């Protein structure tokens, strides 16, 4: 079967959209820590940590450009250990997708549709994502081409409206409580970086897999720049205390802006653009999860399991959280930090270990052959 291909540009757009969308909605860098007015400094640490994560995940995948993470696990660790490692990664797709769809559904209910059953919103979003995943990764790549520029325009517009309402005195004093709150503020966004695990499933589909690391770094650089700008303007507009207290600080900040007597509630434009970004992220999670599960269980076509996986996604998104406050509890540094780091480092410590052992064994074998 011919492997579907996407451009490295589309790969970058997908990662950018996934990394920027939900952090913009919840701003855990501000709401889940005590960084307050220094949250922008935490965002700088995010880029450093994310770059290391990219080298860990994408750097290894680029060494096996024709294999996705499941096939790479088989090659490096063997069939059974490789399947165990792959299931940990596939669980991260399942849980991160259910978390993101629930966060967006809660934002819609809190801000716009309080009487709408949450199962209707989550099921609708997952059904649309399943349709895109059924069509294949090339369709998801083309959608990212279209949505990226629309999302970027809406982000720039939203930040532009905040700029004229901002009071940058709210960003002072800088580092008044030391560096520890800044460090803690970066923990949750770094833990949510486990979404980068999808890159290991997408690398075999790239036109230029050898440039995967550069493409991912550009995407993360752009996403972190957006997050830094957002944190600065939200804190400057709402103040550090209120910004940390509200559930969706970006929506709250934009909702208070009135452009003219007849133009207000412009936050709906930002929320709509986030919904499009979430569509790309969910579609990628569904595609990578189904493709990986089909590989692990020996199925010929991943499309056969899209429907049951979609049902599991809906059930998990509903029953995993009682309300939005339980979501905030999950996004606490002491919870999301260790959990997210486990999803990233547990599988890749084994995979890198298997890679290095094979390299050493290969070097020893070559040396013996040369002595003969």
Structure report:
- This protein is 75% helix and 1% strand.
- A two-stranded antiparallel sheet has the order 1-2.
- The model has no long low-confidence stretch (mean pLDDT 81).
- With 372 residues, the protein is mostly helical.
- It has one domain (8-348): Amino acid/polyamine transporter I (Up-down Bundle), CATH 1.20.1740.
- It has 17 helices and two strands.
- Strand 1 (258-260) and strand 2 form a beta hairpin.
- The termini are far apart.
- It has helices spanning 8-26, 28-31, 39-61, 69-77, 79-111, 118-135, 137-163, 180-185, 187-191, 199-202, 212-238, 240-245, 249-255, 267-296, 306-319, 324-330, 333-371; strands spanning 258-260, 263-264.
- The longest helix is centred in the C-terminal third of the chain and has 39 residues, at 333-371.
Question: How would the blueprint of this fold be written?
Answer:
Blueprint: H1 8-26, H2 28-31, H3 39-61, H4 69-77, H5 79-111, H6 118-135, H7 137-163, H8 180-185, H9 187-191, H10 199-202, H11 212-238, H12 240-245, H13 249-255, E1 258-260, E2 263-264, H14 267-296, H15 306-319, H16 324-330, H17 333-371
Antiparallel strand pairs: 1-2
Helix pairs in contact: 1-7, 1-11, 1-14, 3-11, 3-17, 4-5, 4-17, 5-6, 5-14, 5-15, 5-17, 6-14, 6-15, 7-11, 7-14, 11-13
